[in-house]
Structures are given as C-alpha cells and as structure tokens.
Amino acid sequence: MTSSRQLFSVLGFVIFLSFCLKPTVTVDFIPTDPLFTSQWYISNKDHPSADINAPQAWNRHKASGRGVTVAVIDNYFDILHDDLLNATVQSLSRNFVDDSANVSPSKSVANAISSKGTSLAGMVLARTNEVAAIGLAYNAFFAPLTVAHTIKAEQIAAALVFEKDRIQIYCNTWMSEDGFGYKTQIPDVISNALEEGVTTGRAGKGNIYVFPAGSSYTKTLGVPESTNFDGYANNPYTITVGALTRTGYPGTGAYHNPGLSIMGVVPASSSLTDTVVRKVC
Length: 281
Hints:
Layout lengths: L6 H15 L32 H6 L9 E6 L19 E2 L13 H5 L2 H10 L15 E6 L6 H8 L8 E4 L15 H13 L7 E5 L26 E7 L16 E8 L1 H10 L1
Parallel strand pairs: 1-3, 1-4, 2-3, 4-5, 5-6, 6-7
Helix pairs in contact: 1-4, 5-6
C-alpha cells in the first residue's frame, strides 16, 4: 500500500529521471519560496548525504525538468493550488472514472488538498513563486490522471498509456494490494499497457513507470512484506524505489517494504517531512 511518507521514495526517482531526460539552461538562483528551508530532502544541512542534491542539479547542471511532463496517477488532485496551477497541462488532465477532464471529483476541497496525489505533484512540480515550497522539477509540466479509489484495472491501464508520446514519466501513487507473503499478479490489461508504454511510448524511446516499494511491511500477520511478491514492484517494465530516513539510513517499518526489485532509495520520511507535505499542497 502507498502511504504519504512513501511518496518521497517515488518522487526522488521521478525528479532524477526528469533531470536526466532533458537538461536545460536556467539562471542560477536561490529559491525564495517560504518553505524551502524546511525541505530537508532537497538540501539537508544536518545530514548532507541524505538529501537529493537538487540545488546542485539546478545550478551546476542547469537542470530543472524543463521540457519534461510527469503524470501522477491517483484519486484526487487540487490543480487550482497556486503551486500547481501554472504547471498543469489541461489537455493532459483526465478523469478515467467518468471520462472527463475533471481531475478533482472530491466531495470537498479539503479532500483534494489532502490527497497524496496532490502532495506528490507539489513535491515534484510546484512552481517557484514565493507561495509555499519549490518543486524538485519546478519547470516540468504536470499531467494529473484520476482513477477510482476502488481500483479498476481498465482505468489503470488506460491511464498508463494516456498520451504516451507527450508524457515521459508516469508516477503511480494509487493504492494497490501488496503481496502479503504471496505473489500478486498484475491483470493482463495492465501488464499489456506497461509493455506498450515501455516499448512504443515517448516516440519509441519508452515511457518510464515509477512505483513505490510499498508500505505494508508491519501490517501483515507475521509475514514480512516484500516487493518480491508485489506484481507491480517486481515487474520488468517498472522502476521500484525504496526509502531513506532524514539521517540517511534505510527506512523500515510500515512505510517501506524491502525486496530484490528495489532499484534505488531516496529521502522518504520524518515528522518534518510529513509537515512539509501537508503545507506544500
């Protein structure tokens, strides 16, 4: 299962990939967004080895995600948030529940603001505008893709290949069942969509699908969870990422599952992290 803390393990690889796909020239700057100094995963003065080195990527390598579009697949999004409004591409916004462009079908604004999809989008894509925080790829574009809270395989499959030549990275924060000690199979329609995106998407270069390692390690009845049993995290067409704590140690407990399919770990959790997540978006 994907928790709010687990979002960071996904966003770290998303931003790494967005830096690599299209490096660009930008003017060196020091962010003036009021929450920037609290974003330890960007620049960690207490434990420098535990951050993601975003300022160095911005200034030394001139990379900010410009020209890259990141899709986030989840249940709700607050695309009217000041940090996301100018990042969102309307033509790439889709609700696969009712086949509309309304990606914020929540019963209240509070539900959309607190959704993990909105939080992750803010961490990755928030514009630098002195409103709240700065996104790791603050010049990348946002494609919000809404699916039902009760997972429908056809909706997920459609989202995974939606505008596959215009979207480079698909970040998956929607809830999926972990293995709980046994192998979970991906429905054929989703497996086929992943293969299609990787082999034909992005004009033949292949789409990039990022999944979290999972967050059910301590929730099983005496059976430690593992990505080895997760049909999504252990799929040859996905990139699975795990978590590091604020001090740089591997994350443990309910927000991080171990496993052989994990391809990397990034900053993930602390009480301060959770506070920043809620404040950014």
